[in-house]
Amino acid sequence: MSVRREHALVRRSASVAAAFLAAYENDDGDAEHDGEFALLARLAQVEPVVILDVGANVGHWTAAARRCFPNATIHAFEPAPPTFDRLQRRFAHDGGVHAHPVALGAGTGSARLGYDVAHTEVASLAVLPAGSETFDVAVRAGDDVLDEHAIERVHLLKVDAEGYDLEVLRGFVRAFARGAVDIVQFEVSPWNSVARVWVHDLVDALGEGWTTGRVFPQHVALAPYSPELERFQHRQNHVAVRADRPDLVVAVAGRRGHR
User: Fold this and answer.
1) Could you tell me if 14 and 86 lie in one domain?
2) 2: Cβ–Cβ under 8 A, 6 or more apart, which residues?
3) Which residue range is the domain that position 54 belongs to?
4) Residues 134 and 177 in one domain
5) What is the CA radius of gyration of the chain?
6) What is the mean pLDDT of residues 209-214?
7) pLDDT, tens digit, for every residue of 125-176?
C-alpha cells in the first residue's frame, strides 16, 4: 500500500471514529435530534402548565414547547438585546409566551454580557467570547421573578446559559426548598470548564429529593451521579426530576432510561 493511500485510509478511519464518538456522546447540538424535543413530546402526557425558558435565544426551544403544550404559559428570558428583539417579534402575537429582556442569576443587579456577533446563539455572563460585543444587562433572581408574577409552581425549568447555569439555579433556592419546581433541564458544555462549574455543582444546587440523568435522543439515562459526567468536550443536556413524582420520572426517562 502506498504511503499516500495509507494516509488517506487513516484519515478516513479517524473521520468515521470521530463521527461514531460524536453520536455516542450525543454531540449533535441540535435539539431536534439530541433528545430535547423528544423529551418535550414525552412530557405532553403530564401536561406542564408553567414553563420557564432561561436563555431562550430566538425561541426555538420555546416554540417546540408551545407546540407540545399549547395551553401552557411560557416565560422566556433572553438578556442579549439583538437576540431579545428577535424573540419578542417571534411571539408578539402569542399571549401564552411572555418574553423578558433580563438574565436570571443568583441575585438581583446587573452584569456584563458577552455577545458573540459571529455566532449569535452564544451569549454568556460567565465568560466573554473572544471578539465579543458586550452589553450591561439586568439580572434577576428566579425566586424574585416567581414572586413578582405570582407563580406558585414551575412545572418545567429549562436553563441554557452558556456556563452561567449554576448562578441561575442558585437564584431558585427558595423554590427548590419548598418543592415548587418539578423538572429542571440544564446544559453543560466546554463553557463549564472555562467557568469551572461541574455537573456535581449543578446537581448540588438543586438540594435534596431529585433524580437526575443525561439526555439522549430517545431517553434520559437517570442514574446516580458519576464523575464520568464531568466531560465537557461536547454539549450535554441533563435533567433533574422530583423523586417523589413517579409519574414524572417515568415520563422523563422514556423506555430503558431509568436504572
Assistant:
1) no
2) none
3) 31-253
4) yes
5) 19
6) 96
7) 887 767 789 999 999 999 999 999 999 999 999 999 988 999 999 999 999 9
